[in-house]
Amino acid sequence: MTIRTILTAALLAVPQLASAQEGFEELRDQCIACHGETGQSETEETPSLGGLDDYYALISLVGFREGRRPSDIMADITADMSNNDLRAAAAWIQGLPDPEPPEAPGDPAIMERGAALARDHHCVQCHGAELRGGHQMPSIRNQREDYLLKALRDYKAERRLGDRAAMVEVVQELGEAELADLAHYVAHLPAE
Ligand code: HEC
Ligand code: HEC
User: Fold this and answer.
1) pLDDT grade, residue 163 (50/70/90)?
2) Which atom of ligand 2 approaches the CA of 59 most closely?
3) Ligand 1 lined by 89 (C-beta under 6 Å)
4) Residue with CA nearest ligand 1 atom 43
């Protein structure tokens, strides 16, 4: 267990005050403006939040606020949020439905290459059989393609390290074209 995991567990363990959700309600309109009301983002390079586990959401939010995960936008948003606000935000995220696949199906040749890369690089071993994550693992299925590619590039450039740097290791063997194939594939997986 890393210190971050322990701190996050401690944060989640504190019972939520009824007022925490109330305080967060005003902020929620801002979150929705960028991330979408139903957790499906229509904003460039901005992740859909639907499908993310509250634990992963909280790790991310604390990371933004403490400057461990880089994002000027999210650092500003979380700067004045209390621990209760962050917990309320994570609880809201947990209740959002999974994002829908894009209307247009994926390019068949890229989907084939992406599936092979995902198999060879064991994405399902950590992100789960359907890539829906859970606990500290983010759901990536039907996440926005542009955001997936940005996230993979951030790990590759070691701008974003993540807990235990697992992803930095995963992407080291992958080139730019392979990252793009993976992002297209994961974004376009069909609904089951
Ligand atoms: C001005 C637009 C904007 C607003 C407002 C905003 N976000 Fe974000 N959010 C972003 C962007 C852009 C990222 C991606 C950061 C990155 O590249 O890592 C992000 C990332 C996140 C993530 C990480 C998701 C993941 O898949 O790792 C969470 C959780 C999140 N935001 C929650 C919130 C919450 C809760 C609020 C409201 C309190 C909020 N955001 C408000 C733009 C915004
Ligand atoms: C050894 C475990 C492991 C493997 C294998 C793995 N991942 Fe991850 N992945 C993680 C962890 C842990 C995180 C969260 C890291 C963080 O907090 O930034 C993550 C985060 C991500 C993110 C960022 C999601 C977001 O919402 O910001 C993407 C995209 C991603 N992984 C894609 C992949 C793909 C594609 C593969 C296969 C090529 C893969 N991962 C294989 C553990 C893994």
Assistant:
1) confident
2) 17
3) yes
4) 34
pTM of the entire structure?
0.93
Cα separation, 180 vs 185, whole angstroms: 9
pLDDT one-digit tens code per residue, 111-156: 999 999 999 999 999 999 999 999 999 999 999 999 999 999 999 9
Domain residue spans of the chain: 3-94, 108-187
Domains 3-94 and 108-187 in one fold: yes
Give the CATH architecture of domain 3-94: Orthogonal Bundle (1.10)
Query: Is CATH 1.20.1560.10 correct for 108-187?
Result: no
Instruction: Quickly count helices (H) and strands (E) in the chain.
Output: 10, 0
Residue 169's closest CA among 177, 178, 158, 179?
158
Q: Is the pLDDT of residue 3 over 50?
A: no
For ligand 2, the distance from its centroid to the CA atom of residue 62, given in whole angstroms, is: 18
Q: How far is the CA of 161 from the centre of ligand 1 (A)?
A: 17
Tokens matching residue 77: 């948003």
